């Protein structure tokens, strides 16, 4: 809008000046030694403008000729950039399709056209890894590290190179080498701009090696960098505290030590504060507090178990509940289970827990009443309980065998599910994959797809 308005104003001014000059005739006289040139004002102005126009054209032409080499180079650079970007896109598409040979060819073309760009090297490294050519991939990653650092913080080639080397070392089980690449990355970055992926990778290595306190410190650093949400960090801290507590509890199986027991209980109590519904924390707390009945720790854990049973009954809570009140007979244990299950009578786990305790206390009718509904579509646990009931009450080995046979084809019970399948107990770190907090409670068919959502090693 402004430009057309400016043009209109300019033309108007030119017109006004032309009319003004037309109304005021006169002559322009130019005297040069021995010469005199006389003409009208309008003609003089016109000739002057023509001369200026010719000089302007000559100057622009001169500038065009002088700058021609630079313009030619700029055009060539633009063409090479376009070819390089097209080659990178082609390499990326070939990688997605699994065409390693074409991806390599396109990556090499992109590298020739964009020698200072790190992305072609990254694509070539990825193609080499897909082709299982680890030596070539390592060369490409090291070439990335050798590139000069960019002015912007995005796509730092050094960081990309170290990340690739870290991923390769981790995949080959070379944890010391992987840690070294992470430390180089963190040392090369700014104090307040540590790469989140590197912090996560170091966290996974520390946790995988059982360095729980170092892993806890890295959780704090990840929260500060925005790598973990605060709510998720609470759960992760609880997992690490329980893992450290489990390690201390393992020491107690070999040699009882009151100091180690108190230290482990303190860790687990911190975990319960962070995640009150974290079942493995309550189970471990019951194990550590069962021999320390003089304090109020056991009473507090008992109350937490009862509160949790109201919301989320779990079979692991029953032995934990009984462990905190030892020295009881089978009948007294049944009364304790009745007290616990009364918090949520209609739940499946309440009926199963009550039936199991009743069978141990030889209260057969109570067990049958508890299992009446469950026996119509029994799970494996129900089948086994029914077999125990038939043997205990009626000494009917034949009927008990039938129930055990039905257990082979009965529906599965809920259990701990990890990345590689069912597990007998919860574990902080999956031994096969190194994932943290990957074990979830649920049914095998439903949980296998979601069990891999734990914190995985950075690859």
Automatic annotation (TrEMBL):
It is found in: Membrane. Residues 26-130 form the HemY N-terminal domain. InterPro entries: HemY_N, TPR-like_helical_dom_sf. The chain crosses the membrane at residues 5-22, 42-68. One of its GO terms (cellular component) is membrane. Its main location: membrane. It comes from Candidatus Micropelagius thuwalensis. Pfam families: HemY_N (PF07219). This is HemY N-terminal domain-containing protein. The keyword DNA repair does not apply. Keywords: Membrane, Transmembrane, Transmembrane helix. It comes from the Bacteria.
């Amino acid at each position: 809008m402004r430009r057309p308005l400016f043009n209109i104003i300019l033309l108007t001014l030119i017109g006004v000046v032309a009319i003004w000059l037309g109304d005021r005739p006169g002559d322009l006289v130019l005297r040069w030694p021995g010469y005199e040139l006389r003409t009208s004002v309008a003609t003089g102005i016109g000739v002057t403008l023509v001369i200026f126009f010719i000089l302007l054209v000559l100057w622009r032409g001169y500038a065009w000729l002088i700058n021609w080499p630079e313009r030619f180079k700029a055009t060539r650079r633009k063409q090479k950039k376009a070819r390089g970007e097209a080659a990178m896109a082609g390499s990326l598409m070939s990688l997605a399709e699994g065409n390693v040979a074409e991806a390599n060819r396109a990556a090499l073309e992109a590298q020739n056209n964009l020698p200072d760009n790190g992305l072609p090297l990254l694509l070539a490294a990825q193609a080499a890894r897909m082709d299982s050519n680890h030596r070539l991939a390592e060369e490409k990653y090291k070439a990335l590290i050798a590139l000069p650092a960019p002015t912007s913080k995005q796509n730092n080639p050094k960081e990309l190179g170290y990340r690739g080397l870290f991923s390769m070392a981790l995949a080959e089980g070379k944890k010391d080498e992987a840690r070294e690449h992470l430390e180089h990355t963190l040392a090369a970055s700014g104090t307040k701009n540590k790469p989140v992926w590197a912090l996560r990778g170091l966290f996974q290595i520390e946790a995988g090696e059982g360095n729980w306190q170092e892993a806890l410190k890295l959780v704090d650093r990840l929260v500060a960098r925005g790598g973990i949400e605060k709510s998720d960090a609470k759960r992760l801290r609880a997992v690490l505290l329980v893992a450290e507590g489990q390690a201390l509890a393992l020491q107690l199986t070999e040699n009882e030590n009151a100091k180690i027991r108190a230290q482990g209980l303190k860790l687990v109590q911190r975990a319960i504060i962070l995640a009150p519904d974290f079942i493995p924390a309550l189970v471990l707390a019951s194990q550590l507090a069962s021999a320390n009945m003089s304090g109020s720790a056991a009473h507090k854990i008992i109350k937490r178990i009862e509160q949790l049973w109201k919301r989320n009954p779990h079979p692991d809570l029953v032995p934990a509940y009984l462990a905190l009140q030892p020295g009881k007979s089978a009948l007294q244990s049944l009364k304790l289970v009745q007290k616990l299950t009364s918090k949520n009578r209609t739940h499946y786990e309440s009926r199963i827990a009550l039936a199991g305790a009743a069978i141990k206390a030889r209260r057969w009718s109570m067990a049958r009443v508890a299992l009446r509904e469950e026996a119509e579509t029994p799970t494996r646990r129900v089948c086994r309980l029914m077999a125990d009931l038939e043997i205990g009450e009626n000494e009917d080995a034949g009927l008990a065998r039938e129930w055990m046979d039905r257990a082979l084809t009965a529906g599965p019970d809920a259990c701990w599910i990890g990345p590689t399948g069912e597990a007998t107990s919860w574990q902080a770190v999956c031994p096969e994959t190194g994932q943290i907090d990957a074990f979830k409670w649920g049914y095998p068919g439903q949980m296998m797809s979601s069990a891999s959502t734990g914190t995985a090693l950075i690859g």
